[in-house]
Automatic annotation (TrEMBL):
Enzyme Commission numbers on file: 3.2.1.55
Keywords: Carbohydrate metabolism, Glycosidase, Hydrolase
Reactions listed under catalytic activity: Hydrolysis of terminal non-reducing alpha-L-arabinofuranoside residues in alpha-L-arabinosides
Keyword Transmembrane assigned: no
Gene3D superfamilies in UniProt: Glycosidases, Golgi alpha-mannosidase II
Subunit composition and interactions: Homohexamer; trimer of dimers.
Membership in a protein family: Belongs to the glycosyl hydrolase 51 family.
Protein name listed in UniProt: non-reducing end alpha-L-arabinofuranosidase
Lineage of source species: Bacteria, Bacillati, Actinomycetota, Actinomycetes, Propionibacteriales
Species: Nocardioides renjunii
Main enzyme class: hydrolase
Residues of the Alpha-L-arabinofuranosidase C-terminal domain: 290-494
Entry-linked Pfam families: Alpha-L-AF_C, ASD1_dom
Length: 501
């Protein structure tokens, strides 16, 4: 097939917030224990952090990490994770039916983030706890000195505050599975009250209201309208969560998952702006897409798990999806959707980061490696700098069962401050390559370019412990750059990045 990608270089573009390249670490499965933290591992530093994982997370280019949940946070007492290790309690984690030993808590996770060079985003427990506990944690984290809690923090090894700016007001409070799940009215009131109280303590916060845990929730849309009606002027962002998977062998629909993400974002933007209009508010609320990924949730739900009263495993192998080439192409296309909406999506978190539905995998006592999904994330984070530019795509379309008629090619473009233009392109066709012509009206001539492509003849190829480098990105030698004439071949089911200078 043939396709034309028209990139509007004359447009000023929309700034790409670095925070689009965030991730998420929950106390679930082996994300923390034997993922981030494994004392005794050959690569562990003096604090027990696996330096092989630190290096991979640095390479991934993660701007901020949301922590410690997820569903976990709705049963969590943050105090359990601070203070001398030997006196930290061992607890039951009801969300994942596991044992939590609390070896890693706020201090350790913040230290780990200093190693990887990412900011901390804290999620509060507004499920089984409330405003007072949120204030306690905020005081402990952000107040410099002079109170019992700040003295305690100093005794725990941290005289200077953590200075956490972004806080999530609970997690997926619309989900019946959530501990402390509430109605939209009840949650909206609690979130508004907690936000107001937090700002009395620290006016310089960025607060994230819980939106829907998926666009398929029966309460979607009405949930957003109600919680925003209660909390509009108190918050800066509202969250979206979305997970996609290939269902019943329908690869065509799966590859078009970004069509759903686009519609999700557009609906939430419309709802935000409706509430703003009704209130006559000048205040601006944007989106934090703070959980997104491919997740084989239906497989997880179908698994037989022992959930008896006497079986609470520590760091079990949970949610350890092994990602295929097709999964990586979808991750790349979801990043394209986020870039396309950079005007309203100000931050996002890939869910998750290590071992649980993660781009980085580890073996206890053994190596760490990159899943297929690592590559589009790392390369988009590295090259999507400056501003996001409008693009137009002319290409063939195809009918899909879940998303209707979709274009076979999707793309986003960014322009760096030094003039470098980066293109991110997917070919969703399963039947053959697409010859892409890139058109840049205005006649800017590029001197050179580089293209890299993720593709494999086996769309279901994966990286595993046994074969950790089976799938990767390769130079795409079909790229031709001759002034403003740019062409490239996109293999079927592929994701590519093109950097033009
Ligand atoms: O990321 C896994 C889970 O997905 C999170 O705990 C929850 O917030 C969401 O349902």
């Amino acid at each position: 097939g043939q396709a034309r990608l028209v990139v509007d270089l004359e447009h000023p573009g929309v700034p790409v917030d670095r925070r689009l390249f965030g991730a998420f670490v929950e106390h679930v499965g082996r994300a923390i224990h034997t993922g981030v933290h494994e004392p005794g591992h050959p690569s562990a530093d003096a604090r027990g952090f696996r330096t092989d994982v630190v290096e991979l997370v640095r390479e991934l280019g993660v701007s901020a990490v949301r922590y410690p949940g997820g569903n976990f946070v709705s049963g969590y007492r943050w105090e359990d994770g601070v203070g001398p290790r030997e006196s930290r309690p061992t607890r039951l984690d009801l969300a994942w039916h596991s044992t939590e030993t609390n070896e890693v808590g706020l201090h350790e996770f913040a230290e780990w983030l200093e190693e990887v060079g990412s900011d901390l985003v804290l999620a509060l427990n507004l499920g089984t706890r409330g405003t007072l506990e949120a204030l306690d944690l905020l005081e402990y984290a952000n107040v410099a000195r002079g109170t019992t809690r700040t003295d305690e923090r100093a005794r725990n090894g941290r005289p200077h505050p953590f200075g956490v700016r972004t806080w999530c007001l609970g997690n997926e409070m619309d989900g019946p599975w959530q501990l402390g799940h509430r109605s939209a009215d009840d949650y909206g009131k609690l979130a508004a009250q907690t936000a107001r109280a937090m700002r009395l303590l620290d006016p310089d916060l960025e607060l994230v209201l819980c939106g829907s845990s998926s666009r398929d929730m029966p309460t979607f849309g009405e949930w957003e309208r109600t919680v925003l009606t209660h909390a509009y002027d108190e918050v800066d962002l509202i969250s979206c969560h979305a997970y996609y998977e290939e269902r019943d062998g329908d690869l065509a629909s799966f590859l078009a998952s970004a069509v759903d993400m686009d519609a999700f974002i557009d609906s939430v933007v419309a709802t935000i702006d409706h509430v703003r209009a009704v209130r006559g508010s000048e205040h601006r609320v944007d989106i934090s897409f703070d959980e997104w990924n491919v997740w084989y949730l239906s497989r997880f739900q179908a698994e037989e798990r022992i959930t008896s009263l006497d079986h609470w495993p520590r760091a079990p192998r949970l949610l350890e999806d092994v990602y295929t080439v097709a999964d990586a192409v979808v991750v790349g296309s979801l990043l394209i959707s986020l870039l396309r909406h950079a005007d309203r999506v100000r931050s996002a978190s890939l869910a998750q980061l290590v071992n649980a539905i993660a781009p980085v995998m580890t073996e206890p006592g053994g190596p760490a490696w990159r899943q297929t999904t690592f590559f589009p994330f790392a390369l988009t984070s590295r090259h999507a700098r400056g501003s996001s530019l409008p693009v137009r795509i002319e290409c063939d379309e195809q009918e899909t069962a879940r998303h209707g008629v979709v274009p076979l090619v999707d793309a986003a473009a960014t322009r760096d401050e030094d003039g470098t233009v980066s293109l991110f392109v997917v070919n969703r066709s399963q039947s053959g390559p697409v010859e892409l012509d890139v058109v840049v009206p205005g006649g800017r001539a590029f001197a050179r370019g580089d293209a890299r492509t993720l593709h494999d003849d086996d769309h279901h190829a994966v990286n595993t412990l046994a074969d950790p480098t089976r799938v990767g990105v390769r130079d795409n030698s079909t790229l031709r750059v001759d002034g403003d004439a740019i062409t490239l071949t996109l293999p079927p089911v592929s994701w590519s990045v093109v950097v033009l200078e």
